Amino acid sequence: MVDFPIEAVRGKFPALSLSDKGRRRIYLDNPAGTQVPQAVADAVSRCLLTTNANLGGYFETTVAAQAVVDEAHQAMADFLGAASPEEIIIGANMTTLTYHMSRTLGRSLKPGDEIILTRMDHEGNVSPWLQLAEDLGLVVRWLPFDEQSWQVEEAALAGLLSDKTRLVALNYASNLTGSINRVRSLTAIAKQAGALVYVDAVQFAPHGLIDVQHLGCDFLICSAYKFFGPHMGILWGRLDVIEGLKPYKCRCSSNGLPERFELGTPQIELMAGLTAAVDHFAGLGAAVGETGSRRQKIAKAFEVSIAYENPLAQRLIDGLSGISGLTIHGITDPKRLGDRVPTVSFTVDGIVPETIVRQMNAENIFLWSGHNYAWEIVHQLGIPAEQGVVRIGIAHYNTAAEIDETLESVHRVIAMLRQQRS
């Protein structure tokens, strides 16, 4: 096994060296957004300063700007294993793109058609479809997750499918429980029923290699700011599916792919940062010995990142598990570490999550409380939505020392809050 070059990786992220009044920062808010390498910030700045123009002209900056846009689509094709950059649609964020695609798909749906939504998804892959169903008179069927496996089970999906099912919206990994779904097998079941499959991979993309062709789904979406890039969303659509769609767009804008789905002037400078974020993974793969294509380097980067992140996640889980009255909502079995990403959420009997988080934030340990838009999960689990959970999320720039310091803080803060309550 190749050693993970943690110090070299951390050296690429300027934010990791910042302090506040002499106090170090520990970034464990990563499920809500990661820090960025210097190369990403440099790419955005360079684009704004040297290639700042709209597209479609013949002078130097507009030609250079088009190259930035083309490079970003190719980079994401490599990142996701797409067959062509024409399948890559880049926009403002995951939720906006999903609303846009849901309305486009809605043009072919009629009252009585059925869609399946899961109780495990982020609200960005729920509300767009719920509101589409309300607008068009569609039937929504709800797919719960299994509270023993913490995953969506194939048998449960098969039991909901019918000859009226038109779409199944799934998530790859939960932003609250961290559980990874078996997307390929779930997709295969849905496709047998003739349904389209729309996959939210926002939480999986920072932690595992995505191969859209292998998965067999029709759409897959992710967010660059969750994998060390700028704030934007990326939607992959299978070419033979998106070629037949008629999106909402300006009459005079391009009908080409993917341009017909990319409304308005592109975020060109952010696309430059997006390419740099993908190249961060490729650079990591190269640093640990991979000499092949960019895709092969990305695959190697995830191989070593997973081997590095998983022990950190288990270290965190083990440390939390020893606290009485604390419940981890997700997979804790060390043998199933491969079935989760390193996002760990918990509640503590009698203590509101926000009170824990406020104390830890004051110690410059950055993490979140709340439902984190996992609206259906907290309701299925009976967790008060107005309180939610404490969520700790690891990225591949975190260290074992940071996990240990965080655990020490959790233990101390809970003990203090219990003493105040007694």
Automatic annotation (TrEMBL):
Organism: Rhizobium loti (Mesorhizobium loti)
Pfam families cross-referenced by the UniProt entry: Aminotran_5
UniProt keyword list: Pyridoxal phosphate
PANTHER family tied to this protein: CYSTEINE DESULFURASE, PYRIDOXAL PHOSPHATE (PLP)-DEPENDENT ASPARTATE AMINOTRANSFERASE SUPERFAMILY
Gene3D superfamilies xrefs: Aspartate Aminotransferase, domain 1, Type I PLP-dependent aspartate aminotransferase-like (Major domain)
Protein's name according to its UniProt entry: Cysteine desulfurase-like protein
Domain Aminotransferase class V as annotated: residue spans: 26-404
